[in-house]
From TrEMBL:
Molecular function via GO: peroxidase activity
Descriptive protein name: Cytochrome-c peroxidase
Annotated segments matching region Disordered: 310-330
Organism: Sutterella massiliensis
Signal peptide annotation: 1-17
Places the protein is found: Periplasm
Gene3D superfamilies per record: Cytochrome c-like domain
Residue ranges the record marks as coiled coil: none
Superkingdom to which the source organism belongs: Bacteria
Amino acid sequence: MTAVVGLLSLASFSASAAEPVDPIEPVEVKNPALVELGKMLFFEPRLSRSGFISCNSCHNLATGGVDNLKTSIGDYWAQGPINSPTVLNSYGQIAQFWNGRAKTLAEQAAGPIANPLEMGSTHEHAVKVISSIPGYAEYFKKAFGDEKVDIARITEAIGEFERTLVTPNARFDKWLKGDKNAITAEELKGYELFKSSGCMICHNGAQLGGQSFQKMGSIRPYQTTNTDEGVKAISGRDQDRMTFKVPLLRNVELTYPYFHDGEAETLEEAVEVMGDIQLGKRYTKEETARIVAFLKTLTGDQPKIVYPVLPPNGPDTPKFEPWAPKPEGK
């Protein structure tokens, strides 16, 4: 019996190994207390200046880890300059943010807190707020061994929680593992077209993306009114203009609108534009429909999150600014 199970496992592995993509797998949780603290902080609006914006505001776990807006809304209703990428399956990417300015999930978590267009606070104020809430003390002690609160611990906890936000058991993953009935013939044709077109040059790895930076418009220039310059903002090199981290395709049917500027409202539009400007291909309606059908097989089990009850303010919790129109000139 053991030998039969071993042969079946080997066959399943071989089927997966024959394809240029691996299934998404659940992650091992090494410090449950740190993950639980991170979950609370992920949903914690008091990390923002207004007390209304949390990480989940832009990376909503109920909607594929995004906010489904063209560009996100932040502090004092500020319109962000770029589309919010999904937080699901974000662990293991080459970097974080569209321009790769953060190397880790913890480093990424630190950015929005102090960004005036996002959460609008400062790291110092965020630490002061969390430190003043007595209910957090026991969670920090369980996670770190003592009650000390600093920005490094806050972001480490958030990053560790985000690391667990994977979506296994997509129908395509089941197909990779040997269940040939998990996807339809039409979806399989879409996958084969996806491969033969060259899409996997950029969209590869278990996440089907997130492993490289590519220029948007390698064959034909991408037309947009969005002023974000991509990696150039970090490197300062003109050749890096319009170069962005390749987005993940896992759960892509949920993460509309698409591209760094949110200009593509549907998967069909995104496939047609990418085929044109990246590959020099003009897909027929039938071909587009097949690729889209394949992409929809990449939706996995969404994180089953029990939303935490956040501890109430302490007597010394700093007062938040009122949620009102931003004063003129500020």
